[in-house]
UniProtKB/TrEMBL annotation, chains A, B:
Belongs to the HAD-like hydrolase superfamily. It comes from Myotis myotis (Greater mouse-eared bat). One of its GO terms (molecular function) is phosphatase activity. InterPro entries: HAD-like_sf (IPR036412), HAD-SF_hydro_IIA (IPR006357), HAD_sf (IPR023214), LHPP/HDHD2 (IPR006355). The keyword Ion transport does not apply. This is Phospholysine phosphohistidine inorganic pyrophosphate phosphatase. It comes from the Eukaryota. It is an enzyme of class 3 (hydrolase).
Length: 270, 270
């Protein structure tokens, strides 16, 4: 592999995944990953552009940012690109009225959306709300539509909470796809459109940006397909086999966000 | 299409799907499909061999047969081929100790199986037991195994209850496959091994047998791949689009089991 100086040359902006990079979510608000609070602060002081790009769809952005701030992170709602606002734009553009299979915490993000007489289904990481009854209701709505539309906020396989690995929305998306014979539209990483909107908000070109995440497919592969560079951290849901993934090779693997920031401060184009 | 006489020539044995063909399951034991009680009786009197071949994995065979008998059907446990006993044979042959994600009703079918220190996961149509907590536990067991084995009792997309269409085990199988990066082994229709064991129990060769079911893929396609003929009934989960399925074409479509039996009594090789 090329030297870090070469790999990070010309980087002017950084997209940071949140869960598994900044903190592990969980009971009581989760806990920060060692060194990440300081790493974010150093990054922000460095002159590099910084934005947070998350597939979090179980909490509202307000709640997420509140939790992160309580853990000591310097982050505001305006700095976070997350699937619910992107989904709302898509629903409004296409005149879609969703049946929502989402966590109560995130329902308020859809307050401005007409949900009467649904003509599509939106699923997010609903956690405990992924009951058989709720899944069956979403299934029945889709089966009742002549042209079923399923929108999934991300398609993650799993994430890491303080209590262990947890099923993410992706599996439930696959369940509905299979049962209904449809293909979901994904709003969130690794959708290129989602990365491009985060890049616009970051204000740099793809070749000037690096994504830092714990998901080899959703973060690293997705960002690379948009022309960005991407580093995988060995925290969160990282597993050693990720470094030998058959399809995706990160531009670098680092132990944690703190190491990534050390390298960026040395080599990026501040 | 050829005349019925040609299509049913040489048939000596009949495999009957249960749910959606004999009855629609549901609250209070479900209700028989019009004409099916008499159709089963006429078929049994005809001299044709008859066996029931079901993917039912939410109830024990004893409970299922009890419900059917209360509805008036002439059926005994010994006449039913169902996934749980086949799964038990497979587990014992391979020394597998399952973590069971199954309905309480069917747990007793696994009484003779060692479930300590699980080295595989078995999922069945668990209905309300497909909670997030239970799915996550099955996921965590699989992720903890060096060589994860997932066994699914059937892979149906959905079935019809008296209250409407209901998600079957297939979607949940897909969810775990996706989240864990594994491919499930299916015990039940449309697995060729399962059809072959039903044929052995029926006591006729594949070319002498006809399957009657409401599932164009699981019943019709699966039986045809084993060299059997197969009819689809327009009851249960049947949908008009099934008659134009891109991959599977039944040897005939009939309004219900009663019509199938009328035709068999006229044309089969009794």
């Amino acid at each position: 592999m090329a030297a870090w100086g070469e790999r990070l040359a010309g980087v002017r902006g950084v997209l940071l995944d949140i869960s598994g990079v900044l903190y592990d979510s969980g009971e009581g608000g989760g806990r920060p990953i060692a060194g990440s609070v300081e790493a974010v602060a150093r990054l922000k002081r460095s002159g590099l552009r910084v934005r947070f790009c998350t597939n979090e769809s179980q909490k509202s952005r307000g709640r997420l940012v509140g939790e992160l701030r309580r853990l000591g992170f310097d982050v505001s709602e305006a700095e976070v690109t997350a699937p619910p606002p992107a989904a709302c734009r898509l629903l409004q553009e296409r005149g879609l009225r969703p049946h929502l299979l989402v966590h109560d915490e995130v329902r308020s993000e859809f307050d401005q959306i007409d949900t009467s007489n649904p003509n599509c289904v939106v699923i997010a990481d609903a956690g405990e709300h992924f009951s058989y009854r709720n899944m069956n209701r979403a299934f029945q709505v889709l089966m009742g539509l002549a042209d079923p539309v399923l929108i999934s906020l991300g398609k993650g396989r799993y994430y890491k909470e303080t209590s262990g690995l947890m099923l993410d929305v992706g599996g439930y998306m696959k369940a509905l796809e299979y049962a209904c014979g449809v293909e979901a539209e994904v709003v969130g990483k690794p959708s290129p459109e989602f990365f491009r909107s985060a890049l616009r908000e970051l204000g740099v070109e793809a070749h000037q940006a690096v994504m830092i995440g714990d998901d080899i497919v959703g973060d690293v592969g997705g960002a690379q397909r948009c022309g960005m560079r991407a580093l995988q951290v060995r925290t969160g849901k990282f597993r050693p086999s990720d470094e030998h993934h058959p399809e995706v090779k990160a531009d670098g693997y680092v132990d944690n966000l703190a190491e990534a920031v050390d390298l960026l401060l040395l080599h990026a184009d501040k």
